[in-house]
Amino acid sequence: MAAEITGRTRPTKLKKQQQRTNNKRKRDDVDIETLEAQVEELDPKATQTNFSDLPLSGPTMEGLKSASFTTLTDIQSKAISLALKGNDILGAAKTGSGKTLAFLVPVIENLYRSQCVGADAGLGAMVIAPTRELAFQIFDVLCKIGRYHNIAAGVVAGGKSFKEEADALARMNIVVCTPGRILQHLSQTAAFSVDNLRMLVLDEADRILDMGFSKDVDAIIEYLPPDRQTLLFSATQTKKVGDLARLSLKDPEYVSVHEKATASTPQNLKQNYIVVPLSQKLDTLWSFITEKSSKHSKILVFLSSTKQVRFVYEAFRHMQPGIPLLHLHGRQKQSVRLDTVDRFRRAKFSCLFATDVVARGVDFPAVDWVVQVDGPEDADTYIHRVGRTARYEREGRAVMFLDPSEEEGMLKRLEAKRVPIERINVRAKKQTSIKNQLQGMCFQDPQLKYLGQKAFITYTKGLHVQKDREVYDLQKYDLEGYAASLGLSGAPRIQFHKADAEEAKRRKNASRSEALADDSDDEDGAVKEKNAVRTKYDRMFERRNQDVLAEHYAKIVGNEDDVEDGAEDEDLFDVKRRIPIDEDVQSLDEDDEGEEIEGPATNGDPTARTINISGASQPLVLDSKRREKLLKSKKKLLKLKDKGSKIVFDDDGTAHQIYELEDEEAFRARGAIDEQRRQFVDAEAERVREADQLDKVAAKEKKKAKREKRKQREREAEGADEEGRVAVGGDKDAMANFIADAGVGSEDEDDEGGEEQPRKKARKWFQRDLPVEEEEVGREIETFDELEAEAAKLLR
C-alpha cells in the first residue's frame, strides 16, 4: 500500500528541473551534430552574402540579429568559412571593414560545437589586442553577439586589481587581453591554465608582432599548446616568414580583400595634406578648430607624444575655441581612458587630442575629420590613423600637416602603399597666430610653461629616434621657431646620445677632459651659430666644478681603456678598474705587531705589494692606500691573523687539547675491548661508591653541626626567659610568663625540624599594632581550650 501511494505522488520541482536540463542537452547534442555536418559540407570558396547562409548555431544567430548584423562584408564572407573549418588565417582588410566579427563569430561557434563552455570547461580562446581601448571594444562586440550563449568571457588589460583578474581568469572560456597583462598572469597566476586552449586570435597583428610586443608574444607562445587554431587580422597584415614561424601557423590561408584595389584606404575617404613649417603648426591647428564648420564636427587630432597632447589640450582649453575638447594618452588611468573614449563616442561635436594609442582598431562612430599634426612613423601608421574615419561606408576627411623637409619622403612612402592624397593650401587670411597668447599664458602659469618645455623635449627626441632618417632629419627643422610657437622664450637644452653604439660606448668610458671636449659638439635641440651671443645663462650652464669632482672623476674613468684583451670572455665578476698606489707608500709602524713590507708582488700587478704579519700564515697583498691604512688598526690585524685553538692543563701543568684521541696501538696493547669495557665499568662503580660514602659522612657532619647550633640557641633562649621571669616578679604576671614559655616551646619544636626559622620582616606603617604577647608566640591563642593545651605541654 505504501508503494502505491509513493508511486502516485507528483514529481518534485528538482526532478522537473533535471528533466528540462536533460531535454536541453539532448537538443544541444542534436544541434551540434547537425552543425558539424553542415560545417563539413561548407564550401569556403563559395560566396555568402548573409549570416543566415552560414552554418551558425541558434544562439549566435539570435545575438547577431539583436545587434542588427545581417549582411556579411567581404572579409567576413571569406574568413568565417575558413575559420569554421579550423584553418589558420592571415586576414587583411581595410579599416572599418568588419574584421572584429570575422574572428569573433568563429571563436564562439568553434567553442560551442566543442562544448568548451561553462565555468568548468576552462579557457578555450584567447584574443590579444595591442591597446586597452581596443580590448574593451572587442569585448563589447563579443557581449552583443554572444549574449544568448552560456559562455564566460572577460577582459584582462591591466589597470585593475591583479587578484580580481586572477580569480576571474579561472572561470573564463574566452579572454580578451593585452600582451603585457596576460603574460603577467601566465607567469604568476597558479590557477590560470591554458592547456585546453583551442583558438588564439591576434587583432592588429602587425602592431603586436613588431619590436614593441615581440618579446611578450614570444613568451606567451611558449605557454600555449601547439595544437591550436591561430587567426591574425589587421589592416596592414604581415607576411614575414619569421613572424609566421614564431606563431607556429599550420598552412595558413591568406585572406585579403583589398590587394587588387587601387587604394589601401576606403574610397569614401578624402585625404589631403598641407605643407606648413613646424613653427606654424599650432597656429594652423587653432585656425582649423575655430572655424564655424569645424565647431559642428567631430575631430580626432593625432600628436606624437603624451606631453604634446597635454600641453595642446591645456593651452587650447584656456583659450576656449568654442568646441568641447578631450585628450587621451597612454599615461592616463584606465578609468579615465575608458571614460574619455565613451564621451567621445557619444559626443555629436567634439575634438579629441590623442596619441597613437587610439590609432588602431578603435571604433569611433561618425568621425568627420582626422588631423595629423605630427607626421606618422611610417605609411602603415598613416593608414591606421585615417582609418578612424570613413568607417562602414560613411564619408570622412583626413588632413596631414607636413614640414617642407618631410614632404618628398612621406609622399614616396604613401605612394608605395597606394594611398591617394592631394595637397591643399591654407588661406593666409583665415590663419590666426596664437604665439603671443601662448607666451603670455606660459609667463603667468609656470606649470603650463613646464608642460611646453617637456612637449618640446619629447617631440625633439622623438624626431631624433625616428627610423626613417630620409623623412625625419633633425637638422632640417626650425627648432627655435617651434619653441617660440609653444610660448617659450628659448629652446630648452637637450643632450642626445649618439646612434652609433661604439661612439656611445667611447663617450661613456671617456675621461673628463675628453667629455668636456666633446660637449661642445653635442646637439642641444637648438640650432646654434658659431658666432652666437653667449648670455650669462649660457655661461652658468657651462660652468664646471673644478675643485671637488674633477680629479676624483678623472681617476675613476681614466684607466678603463687598460683592460687586457679578452677580458670580456672571462668570468661573470671581473675587474672593471684597479686603483693604483704610489711607489712611495709609507711603511707601517714597525712596532705594530712586528709586520714588515717586502718587495713588489709577482702576480702581474707591479703596483701591488705584500706584507708579512706575525701570527698569519699567508702574506697580505696591499693593492690600495685604503687597505694599507686599515692595517694600522690593531683590531683589524687581529682578524687577519690565524685563529688559535683552545687548550686545557692537567694537574702537572701540561697543556692538552680539549679533545684528544689515545694512541690506537697503546689501547689495543692493554687487552681485549670487552675486558677493558668491564674494567672501566667496575672502576667507575667503585668510584661512585667511594663518592657516596664521602657524601654520607659530609651529610652527618653537617647535621651534627646544625644540631649543636640549635642547642646553643635553646640555651641562650632559656637564660633570657629566666631573666624575664625574675624581672616580672613572682606570680604577679603569671599569664605573661606562661605565654613566654609557650613561645619558647614552639620555637624548640620548629628547631627540631632541622631548619632555622627565618627572621620576621619589619612591620610597615599600615600594619596594625599587635600586643607584645601575641608577637612572641608562634600562633595566636584564641580560646581557653587552646590555652589549657599549651599549659599541658609545658608541664610534661
| SS element count, helices | 31
The percent of residues in helical segments reads: 40-55%
Strand content: 5-15%
Mean of pLDDT: 78
Instruction: Indicate the CATH topology of the largest domain.
Output: Rossmann fold
Strand segment tally: 19
Task: Please describe the biggest sheet, giving its number of strands, its sense, and whether it closes into a barrel.
Answer: 7 strands, parallel
Name of the CATH class of the largest domain: Alpha Beta
Q: Over the alpha carbons, how many angstroms does the gyration radius reach?
A: 49 Å
Q: Tell me which oligomeric state these chains represent.
A: single chain
Uncertain residue segments: 1-12, 520-530, 545-604, 727-732, 744-755, 770-777
The strand line-up of the biggest sheet is: 3-4-2-5-6-1-7
Main location: nucleus
Subcellular location: Nucleus, Nucleolus
EC number: 3.6.4.13
Biased composition (Basic residues): 10-25, 701-710
Walk me through the structure.
Residues 49-77 form the DEAD-box RNA helicase Q domain. Residues 684-700, 711-734 have a biased composition (Basic and acidic residues). InterPro entries: DEAD/DEAH_box_helicase_dom, Helicase_ATP-bd, Helicase_C-like, P-loop_NTPase, RNA-helicase_DEAD-box_CS, RNA_helicase_DEAD_Q_motif, SPB4-like_CTE. With 796 residues, the protein is α/β, with parallel strands linked by helices. It folds into five domains: 42-256, P-loop containing nucleotide triphosphate hydrolases (Rossmann fold, 3-Layer(aba) Sandwich); 269-484, Rossmann fold, CATH 3.40.50.300; 493-556, no CATH class; 606-640, no CATH class; 736-748 and 771-796, no CATH class. The protein is built from 31 helices and 19 strands. A seven-stranded parallel sheet has the order 3-4-2-5-6-1-7, with helices on both faces. Helix 5 crosses helix 6 (132-145) and helix 28 runs antiparallel to helix 29 (734-752). The longest helix has 56 residues, at 673-728.
